[in-house]
């Protein structure tokens, strides 16, 4: 019996070239195992991470760009979580969208803006969850990972998985791995983290996309030669982790 899987994919986007980036997303998704239910891609991967290009690449959600992501999902039978600059009511958000063959199922807006992002984006105001065939998923973006209270909102919402998209720099690579593992352990859930690799606009990114299990262990991770990682989602592993580390129950009964 084939068990469902989740995946993290990484690549080096071309800044401002939406067509090239969508083509790369399509290629990576097509190469994933058939059992993958959804794949997570990096922060602002549709446009590349460069805040100076936000005005020229912003897009409505749903809109023409997410329609094309929807086509990839339909052709591969894999749902996609991708980052893009969302235009809405005169504002721009650093957003993460969950797209299935039926269209956009959820949109998350980054709550904690890093550095000069605050000069270009409006901050989001709360958590976003989405129901999937393998459990409830909560969405986070990059710097959000540093704030345990943001992940806690997903524990309180009974999420089984947290999907994190990032543009994490090489100089903070240790923090990236540590925080993904910590959020998996302290919320007793799977964390699937996708990060940029390569260089964009002078930023050297860490790559190191990974999947952490509900005991905080790394189940799968990308390497220099393999830009994708996938792992099974096991309900028994979640149950066992929550018995051994009953933080969810203790919070509610404390």
TrEMBL record:
CDD domains: nitrilase (cd07197). Keywords: Hydrolase. Pfam families: CN_hydrolase (PF00795). One of its GO terms (molecular function) is hydrolase activity. Residues 4-240 form the CN hydrolase domain. This is Carbon-nitrogen hydrolase family protein. The lineage of its organism: Archaea, Methanobacteriati, Methanobacteriota, Stenosarchaea group, Halobacteria.
């Amino acid at each position: 019996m084939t068990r469902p899987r989740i995946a993290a994919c990484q690549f080096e986007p071309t800044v401002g070239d939406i067509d090239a980036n969508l083509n790369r997303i399509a290629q990576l998704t097509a190469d994933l195992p058939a059992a993958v239910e959804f794949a997570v891609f990096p922060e602002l991967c549709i446009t590349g991470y460069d805040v100076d290009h936000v005005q020229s690449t912003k897009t409505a959600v749903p809109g023409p760009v997410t329609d094309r992501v929807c086509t990839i999902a339909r052709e591969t039978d894999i749902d996609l979580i991708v980052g893009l600059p969302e235009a809405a009511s005169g504002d721009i958000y650093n957003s993460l969208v969950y797209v299935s063959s039926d269209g956009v199922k959820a949109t998350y807006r980054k709550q904690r803006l890093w550095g000069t992002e605050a000069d270009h984006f409006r901050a989001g105001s709360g958590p976003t969850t989405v129901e999937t065939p393998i459990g409830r998923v909560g969405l986070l973006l990059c710097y959000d990972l540093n704030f345990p209270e943001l992940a806690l909102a997903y524990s309180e919402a009974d999420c089984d998985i947290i999907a994190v998209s990032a543009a994490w720099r090489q100089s903070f690579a240790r923090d990236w791995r540590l925080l993904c593992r910590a959020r998996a352990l302290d919320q007793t859930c799977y964390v699937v983290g996708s990060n940029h690799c390569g260089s964009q606009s002078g930023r050297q990114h860490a790559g190191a996309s990974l999947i952490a299990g509900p005991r905080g262990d790394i189940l799968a991770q990308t390497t220099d030669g393999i830009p994708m990682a996938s792992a099974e989602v096991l309900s028994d592993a979640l149950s066992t982790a929550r018995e051994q580390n009953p933080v969810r129950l203790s919070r509610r009964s404390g």
